[in-house]
Amino acid sequence: MMVGCFVSLYVISPKLTGLTVVVLPCLVGAGALIGSFLRRLSRLAQEQVAKATGVADEALGNVRTVKAFAMEERELRLYAHEVDKSCEINENLGAGIAIFQGLSNIALNCIVLGTIFAGGTLISNNELSPGDLMSFLVASQTVQRSLASISILFGQMVRGLSSGARVFEYLGLEPTIPLSGGGRIPYHSLTGRVDFMNISFSYPTRPGHQVLKRFNLTLPPCKTVAIVGESGGGKSTVASLLERFYDPTSGVIMLDGLDIRTLDLCWLRGQVIGFINQEPVLFGSSIMENIRFGKPEATDAEVINAAKQANAHRFITGFPDGYNTVVGERGVTLSGGQKQRVAIARALIKNPSILVLDEATSALDAESERVVQEALDRATRGRTVLIIAHRLSTIQGADLICVMSNGRIVEAGTHLELVSKGGLYSDLIRRQRAEGQR
């Protein structure tokens, strides 16, 4: 409509059209300047809404902790503060868009008034007839209405662009570790030997702090290797590197003599490595679906067999709905020991060659720990096992125990060998026994 009307305007009066064309770029430039400010303000508004939502989500997700410390009022004040800031920024954004639209309409009406004034001059000079001036005004008002509609759409576009920018910012991110591509080792020839060779590593968020320093370790096939040490020594980092949650800063991790960076990551995580951590996360679906998460194509019989290996079958069948029992968000309806056994079954159903246990029993009470430990003892048979342990009583039967300190292995041997040495491992045992007696 605008293009067609501009052609009509030029045919009716090139002089009046020239005046309009001179003024319009100035309006467009001013609009672009105000628009860039509004886009920044809209982005701030989106970020503040996300921040307020995050505060609410965190409080509701940890509602028991909030209630346990009687912090309801504090969380309400914190949320109200973030919502008030969001309200203020959105009000400023709304006012800015309103001012932009108001100024646009004033400027467009001024163009119409200027056109009437200039047209009157042309009529008095016999350069334009009154009928042509009326035709020019009708066409210019069509242009005005089109521009007014564009200014309203511009306000919506500003909000959409700022919202979309946050989405596309994440969509455009490329993973540093590709999820697919690379080779696979035939299952019948996979032995499960893992070698950590001269590994150095720093977390991306703390590049100046080296967690592992020229770390070397070999996990022999079908043997159990335990890593112990004080908190912050880098034990869990070793498990994270084996799972390729991160790649080492330097050095290489080998699986059966092949660099794991050359292997298909989906195959490595989906079929080769079973990972059980201290705080297992279950999904808000049935027990059957949670166990099957480890192997989506598994049959019901495979799920039940995995549950039996994990010492979970008895308590599952004790529920009225059995394997169809819905565990609730994050498995809230199950006890700690029950959740851990479901997580063990989830890891075992894919029959992994390598099993990683990251402090799998440290958060359990004595009875739950005993039942879970029985399941773990059964699960580790015939597999390469890496145990990250806090309670030393759970790893005394390991084939090799490594003691870590400051990112390096300082002692290695069996339980009896390390106790007889009287080194750091012996000190850790004495300290834990003293704490237990208290």
UniProtKB/TrEMBL annotation:
Membrane topology: Multi-pass membrane protein
Top-level taxon in the UniProt lineage: Eukaryota
A Gene Ontology cellular-component term: mitochondrial inner membrane
Subcellular location(s) per record: Mitochondrion inner membrane
GO biological process: oligopeptide export from mitochondrion; potassium ion transport
Residue ranges of every copy of the ABC transmembrane type-1 domain listed in the record: 1-159
Gene Ontology molecular function, alphabetical: ABC-type oligopeptide transporter activity; ATP binding; ATP hydrolysis activity
Recorded family membership: Belongs to the ABC transporter superfamily. ABCB family. Multidrug resistance exporter (TC 3.A.1.201) subfamily.
PANTHER family: ATP-DEPENDENT PERMEASE MDL1, MITOCHONDRIAL, MITOCHONDRIAL POTASSIUM CHANNEL ATP-BINDING SUBUNIT
Name recorded for this polypeptide: Mitochondrial potassium channel ATP-binding subunit
Organism: Mastacembelus armatus (zig-zag eel)
